[in-house]
Design a protein that fits this description.
- A hairpin with a 2-residue loop joins strand 14 (about 230-235) and strand 15 (about 240-245).
- It is built from 14 helices and 21 strands.
- Strands 6, 7, 9, 10, 11, 12, 14, 15, 17, 18 and 21 form an eleven-stranded antiparallel beta sheet that branches. Strands 4-3-2-1-8 form a five-stranded mixed beta sheet, with no helix packed on it. Strands 5-13-20-19-16 form a five-stranded antiparallel beta sheet.
- The protein folds into two domains: about 75-335, Beta-galactosidase, Chain A, domain 5 (Distorted Sandwich); about 355-570, no CATH class.
- Helix 9 packs across helix 10 (about 425-440), helix 11 (about 450-470) packs antiparallel against helix 14 and helix 12 (about 495-510) runs antiparallel to helix 13.
- The chain is α+β, with helices and mostly antiparallel strands.
- It has helices at about 1-25, 55-60, 120-125, 135-140, 225-230, 330-335, 350-365, 370-385, 390-415, 425-440, 450-470, 495-510, 515-535, 540-560; strands at about 75-80, 85-90, 95-105, 115, 130-135, 150-155, 155-160, 165-170, 170-180, 180-190, 195-205, 205-210, 210-215, 230-235, 240-245, 260, 265-270, 275-280, 285-300, 300-315, 320-330.
Length: about 575
């Protein structure tokens, strides 16, 4: 019985297992798995070679545009020649290596044609027409790349195929470079004159970048005294010109960090005393940046450095940048032909109403007297003769003051014991005015001796501003030791002669006896002070003042001999009521 029971229990157990398994499979069916998607693959097919399936388009990343590598195999120099300039450009960076103005010489001995590019500083700091990008590493790579070059002159267009090539201006030079990601193109159009245009564009993986052009590495005649300190960055906003020397460039506290000027500009650039590189934006949204770099070099076996002003013009908006440029002398006639006019770069200050006509007269005289030194002499003679009637009036006025000097001194002596605030001083003034009226004089008569000097001050300052900015007088010789009227006399002969003639002119001028002796001594010592000041001023200015004084001495001799001091009996008195 027990054995049968064991068999029955085993059968029942098996049946229960089968039943439970059946019921589980019937009531708890596992969900049917979704169809398996095909495995994801990355298409290697270039864009345009075929159409990807919807699954592939959904999962595959957007393919990067294929940017062909564009790079020359070696460095090449392209040279432009015109009667006015000679420009050398390198395809390494697509930059300017030399910008020589044929009609102007530098200050070297012997002088050479002036190169506006500082070939000593530029290898360290960068070259003119370097590309500017927001990413400094990308800009550095672009400025070191070997660009492919194509040139055109007139109807002829062909790639530059030689290591060095010379083209006649006008001409167009195009630079193209790419490393497969970054691409930079430059197109430079040079005219026969000092004007040109430039276009630069940059893309990264096919997307436009904001870019600009920079003038780096210094500018102008680096052979003049303190050349780097004379270098300035300028910009014109709304007709108001601002000029910044190197100390005011860059971000405050960090001059090497570029400062981006807010607001649109009419033009901007970099300049020295006589030359300028001005960039004229073709769009209102272009910006101007300025900064200072330090050029390190060895002089007299000692390491030294100097500040170098730099600037750039570009756009914060991605896309091509186009600018026009004037690179040449600050000649009023040439600057006036640029649109907008760049005449403001020749800065006469408040003396412009006098200085500009003086310059035009000098230019007119130069047509007949081809020596600017003698032109200054001729112009000074003319001005002095125009002012001669005023000198005659001054002379007679001082003579009259000499006649009434004893009476004037007597009045002053009577009231000398009273202080300036004493009411009785007013009585002295009444007596002095009565004395003037009695002899037909005015209180201004006492200033008569100073009047010619006062009238010369505007002309003196105007000559100073004109000589400091007129390109015509740069390296203009006079005679013998004066080889440049725009710089100081190397032997100080003209300043000393100017001081001597100033002393003689002052000494010969009639002086009223009422003038304090201390004041007289001070007036006689003024020429010495003038001499020390004029030692550092231009030879042209000293020549003007020396000539003026020399003519004044001759005029004073003539007046002293032909018109002796009048006697009191012959003095014409004004009738009093």
């Amino acid at each position: 019985m027990s054995e049968t029971s064991d068999q029955v229990r085993a059968i029942i157990f098996v049946l229960l297992v089968v039943l439970i398994t059946f019921l589980w499979m019937h009531f708890y069916k596992p969900p049917t798995p979704p169809p398996q998607k095909p495995a994801q693959t990355i298409s290697q097919t270039p864009p345009g070679a075929g159409t990807a399936s919807p699954g592939e388009a959904y999962l595959a990343p957007t393919p990067r545009p294929v940017i062909p590598v564009t790079e020359a195999g070696a460095e090449r120099i392209v040279t432009l020649e015109s009667p006015l300039y000679r420009i050398e450009l390198s395809n390494r960076g697509g930059v300017v290596r030399s910008w020589t103005l044929k009609k102007y010489l530098d200050d070297q001995k012997p002088p050479r044609p002036l190169d506006l590019v500082n070939a000593n500083a530029a290898p360290e700091l960068g070259w003119p027409f370097s590309v500017e990008l927001s990413d400094a590493s990308l800009a550095s790579e672009a400025n070191a790349g070997l660009y492919e070059v194509s040139t055109s002159t007139g109807e002829n267009k062909a790639p530059a195929a030689a290591a060095a090539e010379t083209l006649p201006a006008p001409a167009t030079i195009a630079f193209d470079w790419s490393n497969g990601h970054l691409r930079v193109t430059k197109k430079l159009n040079f005219g026969a004159d000092y004007q040109m245009s430039a276009e630069v564009s940059a893309t990264l993986d096919g997307k436009p970048l904001a870019s600009g052009l920079a003038w780096r590495g210094g500018f102008g005649d680096r052979t003049v005294y303190r050349a780097s300190q004379l270098l300035s960055v300028f910009y014109d906003q709304g007709g108001s010109l601002t000029v910044l020397q190197y100390k005011k460039l860059g971000v405050a506290g960090n001059a090497t960090e570029p400062f981006e000027l807010p607001g649109a500009v009419r033009y901007a650039g970099i300049e020295d005393q006589f030359f300028a590189a001005a960039f004229i934006p073709n769009r209102a949204d272009l910006y101007v940046s300025d900064w200072t770099q330090w050029h390190h070099f060895t002089e007299n076996n000692q390491p030294t450095s100097e500040p170098v002003a730099e600037m750039s013009v570009g756009s914060a908006t991605p896309g091509p940048v186009e600018v026009r440029a004037y690179v040449g002398p600050k000649d009023l006639a040439l600057l006036g032909k640029v649109h907008p006019s760049l005449e403001g770069l020749v800065q006469f200050g408040w003396t412009g109403v006098i200085a500009k006509p003086l310059l035009f007269i000098l230019q007119w005289l130069h047509q007949y007297i081809p020596n600017y030194g003698w032109d200054i002499v001729a112009l000074t003679l003319g001005l002095t003769m125009v002012l001669f009637p005023i000198r005659i009036w001054t002379f007679h006025s001082m003579r009259r003051m000499q006649v009434i000097a004893p009476e004037m001194k007597a009045i002053q002596d009577r009231y000398r014991k009273y202080s300036m605030t004493d009411p009785r001083r007013g009585k002295m003034n009444e007596e002095v005015m009565a004395l003037y009226a009695k002899h037909g004089l005015s209180p201004l008569s006492q200033l008569g001796g100073c009047l010619p000097m006062l009238l010369q001050i505007p002309f003196l300052w105007a000559f100073y501003r004109m000589l400091a900015g007129a390109i015509e007088l740069r390296h203009a010789p006079w005679i013998f030791w004066i080889h440049d009227l725009s710089v100081k006399d190397p032997y100080y002969i003209l300043p000393i002669a100017m001081a001597v003639t100033t002393y003689l002119s002052t000494k010969m001028m009639p002086t009223a006896a009422t003038v304090d002796p201390a004041q007289q001594r001070m007036m006689l010592l003024m020429p010495l002070a003038f001499a020390f000041i004029f030692f550092q001023l231009s030879s042209g200015l000293n020549l003007y003042y020396f000539t003026s004084n020399l003519v004044s001495v001759g005029q004073q001799l003539y007046l002293n001999r032909t018109q002796p001091p009048p006697s009191r009996s012959k003095f014409k008195k004004k009738k009093t009521p």
